[in-house]
Design the sequence.
């Protein structure tokens, strides 16, 4: 073996919406890369913007200490999509070119892209340009194709469940219908999991078409059976006729058609904030440490993933551009139906 082997240099960035566990993932990659493999680690600022503008800092092991408990990302993030055509002034998009130049000028051996679906799409395109890229899946939406679970999801489910728990007591006191809207434009994982954990009576998901009529019927049946209040958990991305929030659309329809007092809560960015749950810390650490191992083994052009409880890699070109949605025969949906939970259909 060549003891003079060149010290590897790796970049890390966090892109897309933030979520709890990003710092645990940065720490997992960075510490393993430094301690186990003797690599040098560079953190790029604000997602792909940092790669485009060559804004980075070297991360030493000491900078990776004390961050596992922190929400957000020490690197910052952005929704910059370097392959999105810039056409306002008719000029060409030179962002991918800049990224490739900066990657080579710094002498990187790999860039680790931590993000959701959009990030994996960009990571795949960069990989096709010849850069060594590894993706790590994160999002509170849990909708990244190719992995059973993303970090950020568990923390968000916990936050949303706490909120639903609190709505039960006030709903009961006033005998109201309480509607809580959680995030999820295309995928209803967060609504389904927090809805089930919080004992929601009706759960509305983007994947399942609902009818206002069925929701009303369900609520009236509950009242007839002396269930004096109802909790409805709704994903922000359900199909609705206007731009107003999903919660306000459903609330207005219920109140006007039943006369029962109805109130709405939109949970918003609280779902993405704060310290990660223990499970997210573990998952992000596992993904991060495994990504560093994949770099050492040269397994580029891949995303790390958990499938059937095993950690493995999935080719980025299989992941890019797809979403993991809830299938109508998903086991938890079926089980919930058998317990009387309505999906509004
Ligand atoms: O990607 C996660 C997510 O939280 C979605 O559920 C949500 O709709 C979206 O990001 C909103 O994020 P932003 O306002 O930061 O673009």
Sequence:
């Amino acid at each position: 073996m060549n003891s003079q082997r060149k010290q590897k240099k790796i970049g890390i960035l966090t892109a897309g919406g933030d979520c709890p566990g990003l710092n645990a993932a940065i720490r997992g990659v960075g510490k393993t890369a430094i301690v186990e493999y003797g690599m040098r680690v560079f953190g790029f600022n604000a997602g792909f913007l940092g790669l485009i503008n060559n804004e980075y800092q070297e991360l030493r092991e000491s900078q990776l200490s004390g961050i596992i408990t922190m929400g957000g990302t020490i690197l910052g993030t952005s929704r910059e999509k370097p392959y999105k055509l810039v056409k306002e002034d008719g000029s060409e998009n030179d962002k991918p070119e800049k990224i490739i130049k900066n990657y080579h000028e710094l002498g990187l051996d790999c860039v680790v892209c931590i993000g959701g679906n959009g990030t994996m799409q960009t990571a795949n395109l960069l990989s096709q340009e010849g850069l060594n890229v590894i993706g790590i899946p994160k999002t509170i939406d849990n909708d990244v194709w190719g992995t059973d679970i993303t970090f950020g999801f568990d923390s968000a489910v916990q936050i949303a469940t706490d909120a639903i728990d609190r709505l039960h007591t006030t709903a009961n006191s006033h005998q109201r219908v309480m509607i809580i809207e959680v995030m999820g434009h295309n995928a209803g994982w967060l609504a389904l999991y927090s809805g089930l954990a919080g004992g929601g009576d009706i759960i509305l998901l983007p994947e399942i078409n609902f009818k206002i009529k069925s929701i009303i019927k369900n609520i009236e049946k509950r009242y007839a059976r002396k269930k004096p209040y109802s909790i409805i958990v709704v994903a922000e991305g359900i199909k609705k006729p206007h731009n107003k929030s999903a919660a306000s659309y459903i609330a207005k329809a219920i109140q006007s058609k039943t006369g029962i007092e109805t109130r709405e809560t939109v949970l918003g960015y609280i779902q993405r904030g704060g310290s990660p749950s223990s499970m997210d810390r573990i998952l992000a650490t596992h993904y991060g440490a495994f990504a560093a191992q994949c770099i050492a083994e040269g397994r580029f052009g891949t995303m790390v993933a958990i499938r059937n409880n095993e950690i493995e890699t999935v080719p980025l070109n299989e992941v890019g551009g797809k979403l993991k949605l809830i299938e109508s025969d998903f086991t938890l949906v079926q089980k919930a139906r058998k317990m009387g939970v309505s999906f509004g259909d």
Q: What stands out?
A: Residues 16-17, 79, 116, 139-141, 183-185, 236, 272 surround 6-O-phosphono-beta-D-fructofuranose (CB under 6 Å). The two ends are 64 Å apart (CA to CA).
